């Protein structure tokens, strides 16, 4: 599949050029902005059109305009480039460069699905800020912040961990998910909390925010009465197990959005179980973030939704 995609999908340089033509209305201006010659830009557009099998740009003495197909392709290209920018921001933070001036620790859900966008915003508004990232479960994040190993942390449990202050930066909901082939995917009535508690599940490990929320929600119903089918230390591993048919799980709605949209997983309606949670930034009690940590906190809170 990867080789097939590489033969059918343009590279990022071609997509960035197409976006620049759409924004500037001129192939020449787009070429100058990207630091390439106009003949090179024209050749890149023609190569992209041959690869895709559709005309993308109409050229005239007054400039360049997108064809109808070009408008659609540009919209899709924008999403790919934005995803690549998020990927780059996350990887740059993971490198842990020695000149880092902002040390961030984040729970897995936040690190995978929210932090890259926040880091892009930070790079745009404060381009001189270098960031390093530690990712782990919420308990580990709290430990890093308390030990002075991180300037700012992001956790996903029910409460602010002891010794820390915090602020809500986003909200999330946990959902019950299975493979489409699981018997639950064909049921016509919502799942009862007691039935969920009595079913062996694929779960995150104790200490993760997801596990904390699930345990607390099921406590009034007797807690998890069945031993876990699997306990895994990453959301990605849990999703892979669910999609492969290993068993049902309870995961962040953020984490399984793609799997649900592509029908690789199915959400199971649940009766009367509170599974919403707040995602929080945390810092040592009495020491409000300063400098780059304060900058990042301001950006995340400005994007709460």
TrEMBL record:
Start and end residues of each HTH lysR-type domain: 10-67
Gene3D superfamilies linked: Periplasmic binding protein-like II, Winged helix-like DNA-binding domain superfamily/Winged helix DNA-binding domain
Protein name: Transcriptional regulator
Keyword tRNA-binding: no
Protein's organism: Streptomyces mashuensis
UniProt cross-references to PROSITE patterns, sorted A to Z: HTH_LYSR (PS50931)
Gene Ontology MF annotations: DNA-binding transcription factor activity; transcription cis-regulatory region binding
Family from the record: Belongs to the LysR transcriptional regulatory family.
Keywords: DNA-binding, Transcription, Transcription regulation
Pfam families named among the record's database cross-references: HTH_1, LysR_substrate
């Amino acid at each position: 599949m990867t080789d097939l995609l590489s033969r059918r999908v343009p590279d990022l340089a071609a997509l960035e050029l197409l976006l620049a033509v759409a924004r500037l209305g001129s192939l020449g201006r787009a070429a100058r902005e990207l630091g390439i010659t106009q003949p090179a830009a024209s050749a890149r557009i023609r190569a992209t059109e041959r690869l895709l099998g559709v005309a993308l740009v109409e050229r005239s003495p007054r400039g360049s305009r997108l064809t109808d197909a070009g408008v659609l392709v540009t919209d899709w290209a924008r999403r790919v480039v934005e995803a690549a920018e998020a990927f780059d921001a996350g990887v740059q933070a993971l490198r842990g460069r020695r000149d880092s001036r902002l040390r961030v620790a984040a729970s897995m859900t936040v690190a995978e699905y929210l932090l890259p966008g926040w880091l892009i915003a930070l790079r745009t508004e404060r381009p001189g800020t270098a960031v390093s990232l530690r990712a782990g479960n919420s308990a580990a994040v709290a430990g890093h912040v308390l030990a002075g190993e991180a300037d700012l942390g992001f956790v996903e449990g029910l409460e602010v961990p002891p010794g820390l202050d915090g602020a809500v930066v986003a909200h999330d909901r946990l959902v019950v998910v299975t493979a489409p082939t699981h018997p639950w995917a064909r049921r016509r009535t919502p799942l009862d909390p007691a039935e969920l508690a009595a079913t062996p599940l694929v779960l995150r490990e104790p200490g993760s925010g997801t596990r904390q929320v699930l345990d607390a929600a099921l406590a009034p119903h007797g807690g998890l009465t069945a031993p876990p089918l699997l306990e895994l230390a990453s959301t990605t591993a849990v999703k892979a197990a669910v999609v492969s048919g290993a068993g049902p799980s309870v995961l962040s709605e953020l984490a399984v959005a793609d799997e649900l949209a592509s029908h690789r997983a199915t959400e199971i309606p649940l009766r009367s179980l509170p599974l919403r949670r707040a995602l929080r930034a945390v810092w040592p009690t009495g020491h409000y973030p300063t400098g780059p940590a304060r900058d990042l906190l301001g950006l995340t809170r400005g994007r709460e939704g």
